[in-house]
């Protein structure tokens, strides 16, 4: 298969390198990723500035790679429109440096790049692991991505679905298995701290801590128990459970 790889951590990030190193053993790969860090950009796209594309050499890898001066969603659009030489079969986004669990999927550039692929009519997989993971754990995560791709192809993953995969940052022998589950509600105890003043302006930085979701049968719960989680996502955010009720209001 021909796969387009992208991320939100930048083209030189360790996660996308590990992913490309593993997947190019089996597939034809092209890497199109942001030129630098673009985490938490969600599904933003660049509309008021030109995009700059550069060919990049990733030492030790045979696959073609390009950097884009835009967002993860830009990278998918640019890759599919201008950089691929034949049809892409699937888009893989990651391996993100940091889990994308619960409501983090709404902020994630990694997940949004995969969602952009589905808007372009392609199935996609987003994959993440803990931000403190060792390099070897990214390699482990990449091997599991290969397995997920095989299952997705065998079962004809629809072209409007993203499989959001989170791999716990533990040694392979301690991973308990795989759970297909719903997302939870990941929250943060966040606040802004005034760091300094410049002229008449105030400068603030975002600080805080994560409040881990412990609700059973959710992605955050199972990752905490040592399972790889897979959550099918779709871009239709309609709340169907109250659609009829709201219709009655009007």
TrEMBL record:
Catalytically driven reaction(s): a ribonucleoside 5'-phosphate + H2O = a ribonucleoside + phosphate
This protein's UniProt keywords: Cytoplasm, Hydrolase, Metal-binding, Nucleotide-binding
InterPro entries attached to this UniProt entry: SurE (IPR030048), SurE-like_Pase/nucleotidase (IPR002828), SurE-like_sf (IPR036523)
Top-level taxon: Bacteria
A matching Pfam family: SurE
Binding of a divalent metal cation, residues: 8-9, 39, 96
Function: Nucleotidase that shows phosphatase activity on nucleoside 5'-monophosphates.
Protein name: 5'-nucleotidase SurE
Organism (species): Vallitalea pronyensis
